[in-house]
Amino acid sequence: MSKLTILRYPDPRLHTIARPVTEVDDRIRRLVDGMFEAMYAAEGVGLAATQVDVHERVIVIDTSDKRDDQLVLINPELVLISDEQVLSEEGCLSVPTVYDKVLRPARVRVHALGREGERVEFDAEGLLGKCVQHEMDHLVGKVFVEYLSPLKRNRIKTKMLKQARDEGR
Ligand code: NI
């Protein structure tokens, strides 16, 4: 698969709602491999297919320090979320150089399919919990800056548009 380009906020395509994957086949596995490649190249910990302009429910994550612990989530669902919430800092490969705090449930239980179509179930908290929720937001067209105030969001929009101009994108 040719190199995937990561869409940048405020690209309207980031607000597309992804459809479920109907079959985990070689086409999806090629997408997954391309997404890992793009994510590692950008030094990210997670990437949703939405961010590479593919609107299917596919997420890749690697929160390990050694960058050798790949997690693939296809058609992910949160089946439990904790009442307890935590405020912690987030960033996004679609909003480079911007970091801000977002309040989210502290723990979630995730059901999904893996790279080979196998069932995957796990509980997540901390960095992984935050990452899963952040990436699942992308699949419904939501970027983390939408949790921030309209004032902050407008500043970020302006900064991103300027960055794109400066880079000639
Ligand atoms: Ni993101």
Radius of gyration equals 15 Å
The shape is globular
Question: How far apart are the first and last residues' alpha carbons, in Å?
Answer: 22 Å
Indicate the mean pLDDT. 97
Q: Give the strand order of the largest sheet, numbering strands 1, 2, ... along the chain.
A: 1-2-3-6-7
- Decide which structural class fits the backbone: alpha+beta
Strand content: 25-35%
Number of strands: 7
The largest sheet, given as strand count, sense and whether it forms a barrel, is: 5 strands, antiparallel
What small molecules accompany the polymer chains? nickel (II) ion
Catalogue the unreliable spans: none
Helix % is 25-40%
Spell the H/E element sequence. Answer: HEEEEEEEHH
Descriptive report:
The model has no long low-confidence stretch (mean pLDDT 97). Helices cover 28% and strands 26% of the residues. It is of the alpha+beta class. The strands form two sheets. A five-stranded antiparallel beta sheet has the order 1-2-3-6-7. A two-stranded antiparallel ribbon has the order 4-5. The two termini are 22 Å apart. The structure holds nickel (II) ion. Nickel (II) ion (NI) binds next to helix 2.
